[in-house]
Specification:
NADP, alpha/beta, binds ligand FNR, NADPH dehydrogenase, two-stranded antiparallel sheet, OxRdtase_FMN_N
Length: about 325
């Protein structure tokens, strides 16, 4: 049985393989990007529920790069205090906590100008982005570095870089959204350059476990495929990235045929071809299903999204269902 077996990644040991997938909660009441008591209750509940690693929602490295104006932010030193409190609450419950650093690019909801690798809009309901200047590329990479530095100051255990779902980094990676003619476009190496420079900037201030979330299928003609993503995974491996969190879709408005475990084969392929640690995500809801993915060596961690919104105590239910004994929820065994 693997679901409740520990795993060590760099300096961090997780007590089990259950990860709360990053999910935007659009719950900053104002536009400050600051943690409030709702976030503390929400994430600490999943820690009480025995999730091994909680990755908090896409957190914006610039205000301009928010998915919604109610997103969490890490673009200023003023964000550190609230994030630190959140980290402490989760640590008190013996869980680890990561942060997903994000920039939405052409999918930003900012009131002002929005930016992307090329001036191509997502669809009619989104604004037309401005193609980033070399200066804006430098500033945005610097914003990821500062975000990582603040994440370290807040005490997070993991940083995950959001390179999936059609947000800024994914827009650089894909030939469908990157029509640049400078060194940040063209070949796969060129389109990968922005992500590489983001990772290198993050690594200057962050020595802990580093995850990258990708969309390993864009479900669009001419878009990136799993074959491209095996190559990208090798490039990430060379840079010292510890784990690839394998999602899909979101780059262009294409329909997705989602069924239980639909993205697991993508994680499996990357793991088999590169030997990298992978996380599987997407309609993983049943304990036996999660166990199958891990025990058959298809992924190293299972990320649960909506099922953990429905049931913060999912790990307890899973342990009971699989007949595995974990720490009881009350200090006296006789009360349980
Ligand atoms: C998401 N998802 C998501 N992914 C991500 O990388 N960063 C994010 O901030 C969000 N935000 C988000 C909000 C909400 C409300 C949902 C439902 C989803 C995607 C999520 O992490 C996960 O990959 C998918 O939901 C698929 O997994 P499940 O929900 O089928 O387990």
């Amino acid at each position: 049985m693997q679901l409740f077996s520990p795993i060590t990644i760099k300096n961090m040991t997780l007590k089990n393989r259950i990860v709360m997938s990053p999910m935007c909660m659009y719950s900053c009441l104002d536009e400050s990007g600051k943690v409030n008591s709702w976030h503390k209750t929400h994430y600490a509940s999943r820690a009480v529920g025995q999730v091994g690693l909680i990755i908090i929602e896409a957190t914006a490295v610039t205000p301009q790069g928010r998915i919604s104006v109610h997103d969490l932010g890490i673009w200023s030193d003023e964000h550190v205090e609230g994030l630190r409190e959140l980290v402490q609450l989760v640590h008190e419950q013996d869980a680890k906590i990561g942060i997903q650093l994000a920039h939405a690019g052409r999918k930003s909801a900012d009131h002002g100008e929005i930016i992307a690798p090329s001036a191509l809009r997502f669809n009619d309901s989104y604004k037309m982005p401005r193609a980033m200047t070399a200066e804006q590329i430098r500033e945005t990479i610097e914003a990821f570095r500062q975000g990582a530095r603040r994440a370290a100051e807040a005490g997070f255990d993991v940083i995950e870089i959001h390179a999936a779902h059609g947000y800024l980094i994914n827009q650089f990676l894909s030939p469908l959204t990157n029509h640049r003619e400078d060194e940040y476009g063209g070949s796969l190496e060129g389109r990968f350059r922005f992500l590489r420079e983001v990772i290198e900037a993050v690594q200057e201030v962050w020595q802990g476990p580093l995850f990258v979330r990708v969309s390993a299928n864009e479900y669009a003609d001419g878009g990136l495929t799993i074959e491209d993503h095996v190559t990208i995974a090798r490039m990430l491996q060379e840079l010292g990235v510890d784990l690839i969190d394998v999602s899909s879709g979101g780059l262009v408005p294409a329909p997705i045929d989602a069924y239980p475990g639909y993205q697991v084969p993508l994680a499996e392929r990357i793991k088999q071809e590169t030997g990298m640690l992978t996380g599987a995500v997407g309609l993983i809801t049943a304990p036996e299903q999660a166990e199958e993915i891990l025990s058959n060596g298809r992924a190293d961690l299972v990320f649960l999204g909506r099922e953990l919104l429905r049931d913060p105590y999912w790990p307890r239910r899973a342990a009971a269902q699989l007949g595995i004994k974990i720490a009881p929820p009350v200090p006296y065994e006789r009360g349980w």
